[in-house]
Description:
By secondary structure, this protein is mostly helical.
Amino acid sequence: MAMVPVIELRGAIPYGVVQGLGVWEAFGASVLGNLAPIPLLIVGTRTVFDWLKTKSERLHRMVLKLEAKAEAKKETVERWEFVGLVILVAIPLPGTGAWTGALVAAMMDMRLKRAFPAIMIGVLIAGLIVSGLTFGVDALI
């Protein structure tokens, strides 16, 4: 569930709770699931987007919307670079997260070895925030 865009670990951690997982099981499974597609997204987004733009006008418009979304978030990441990408991913709100971070990193032509650690740190922070809200801070201590 954490691999799905928009849902990511914001939905996967509470879902894990409903399914009977403990705090660290839900956290770990969600973080791993959320991070699994990220290297492919960072490396392959530009190529896939360029290919989709040639297939139909509808796909072209969809890609332009995704690129505009990344462009809107890009300023924060450019200003703060590594830390900006961590913050973008760490805030567990709609329009942020690992998928958005990977999209922004791809649009900025960030190298995987620079972008992935920032996204990973952001996912860990977001996971702790969501776990704290789901289980209560006492459960994390």
